[in-house]
């Protein structure tokens, strides 16, 4: 089945046998046959909450570092949090208000694809820098750690290249 132009890139949960797409609001029902009626929704809620908390904290800290370090903007902590969180939440709230839950699901997928494509630009330098004794001193990563991290970085890069190849060939 060929994907239509308006569908999000790759990560839409799809049951290939009958071609049913599952939107974000129905995904919590997917693990019910395996985990049971009471455990699956609770586990999905905890996972979604943990992911949201993780991304919020990461974005807030990154925004703080950019504002203070690169832009040299000094704000009181409460105002800095308000600005960085507002910048993070306003686009998502706008999409939700304009397009509803379907638009939010597509936005979520798009953000995950973009994050996936950006990940090698953070992981590869991190692996390289932590392996250099001249830069890290006593905190240099051990050889086994560097080899494992390099393998993980290679897999991430390979999967992203496969994603880009599939997209360029129209397979997604």
In words, what does this structure look like?
Helix content is 70%, strand content 2%. Strands 1-2 form a two-stranded antiparallel ribbon. The radius of gyration is 20 Å and the shape is extended. Helix 2 packs across helix 3 and helix 3 packs across helix 5. The protein has 172 residues and is an all-alpha fold. The longest helix is centred in the middle third of the chain and has 54 residues. It is built from five helices and two strands.
Biggest beta sheet summary: 2 strands, antiparallel
**Strand residue content:** under 5%
Strand tally is 2
Radius of gyration: 20 Å
Order the strands across the largest sheet as they lie in space. 1-2
Estimated helix fraction? 55-70%
Described by its quaternary structure, the protein is single chain
**What integer is the average pLDDT?**
75
Task: Classify the secondary structure makeup into a structural class.
Answer: mainly alpha
- What is the count of helical runs? 5
What is the terminal separation in angstroms?
10 Å
Query: What ranges have pLDDT less than 50 throughout 5 or more consecutive residues?
Result: 1-20
| Outline | extended
How do the helices and strands follow one another from N- to C-terminus? Answer: EEHHHHH
Task: Break the fold down into its secondary structure elements and pairings.
Elements: E1 14-15, E2 20-21, H1 32-35, H2 39-70, H3 77-130, H4 133-136, H5 143-168
Antiparallel strand pairs: 1-2
Helix pairs in contact: 2-3, 3-5
